[in-house]
Amino acid sequence: AQSVTQLDSQVPVFEEAPVELRCNYSSSVSVYLFWYVQYPNQGLQLLLKYLSGSTLVKGINGFEAEFNKSQTSFHLRKPSVHISDTAEYFCAVSERNTDKLIFGTGTRLQVFP
Amino acid sequence: GAVVSQHPSRVICKSGTSVKIECRSLDFQATTMFWYRQFPKQSLMLMATSNEGSKATYEQGVEKDKFLINHASLTLSTLTVTSAHPEDSSFYICSASFTGAGIYGYTFGSGTRLTVV
Fold first, then answer.
1. How far is CA A62 from CA A15, A16, A48, in A?
2. Which residues of chain A neighbour B45 with C-beta distances below 8 Å?
3. Closest to A105 (Cβ–Cβ): which among B43, B49, B93?
4. For A35, A74, B66, B101, which has the most beta carbons within 10 A of its beta carbon?
């Protein structure tokens, strides 16, 4: 069964600084990878996903992530964050032979002025 | 496209009563839906996988008699929390996977905040 690890529960950063949110996964088969954002008291919004092809994936709001198969990682990055990026970010993995989507524990990104 | 509608968005019920949450796929047929539970400031925990026309598959530790799932049609899955207790208070989210035209992904309902008093 797959599992997802987000090592950083909280990431504080100043506005306009770069940020990286880390995600590692474990699976015995090929996977699909996703990053979601959740604003307070709201549902989930897809930021980006990796299904196949180029390992560098660009998403909405200036975010991008890189799939590294050897390191089983899918870290999320943004070169310059805004106050409005303050939210909870979830990495998620689904195995190609099942349909279940498993979430990491989440990373709280707090952007300060 | 691929929109899932979840109702109600909020519900308050008395301890011991049952609550039904509906999840509808509006513009596609969802043969498989998923139900998640999210405690405050925590991640989404998969509770069960709902398959149209068959019994749901529950994750380890989830009481199937307490969380009844019905997926009677390709557009509707329901989660019933039976004999609810305060510890069942949580945010419940449904999801469906979709494929088509080379696209694969998941769409989520807006969630139901259940408070048991």
1. 14, 12, 10
2. 103
3. B43
4. A74
Q: How far is B82 from chain A (nearest CA, A)?
A: 24
The amino acid at B92: Y
Q: Residue A100 and residue B49: Cβ atoms within 8 Å? A: yes
Residue B98: list chain A partners with CB under 8 A. Answer: none
Tell which phi-psi region holds residue A54, choosing left (phi > 0), alpha (psi between -120 and 50) or beta: beta
pLDDT digits (tens, 9 = 90+) for B66-92: 999 999 888 999 999 999 999 999 999
Q: Are strands B112-116 and B10-13 parallel, antiparallel or unpaired?
A: parallel
Cα dihedral across residues B105, B109, B113, B116: positive or negative: negative
Q: For tokens 């979830």, what's the residue?
A: A90
pLDDT digits (tens, 9 = 90+) for A62-101: 999 999 999 999 999 999 999 999 999 999 999 877 788 9
Confidence of residue B102 (pLDDT cuts 50, 70, 90): low
What are the distances in angstroms from CA B35 to CA A61, A97, A109, B3, B28?
A: 28, 19, 26, 16, 18
- Under a CB-based contact definition with an 8 Å cutoff, are residues B6 and B113 in contact? no
Residue B39 above 70 pLDDT? yes
From CA A112, how far away is CA A107, in angstroms rounded?
16
Give pLDDT, residue B101: 63
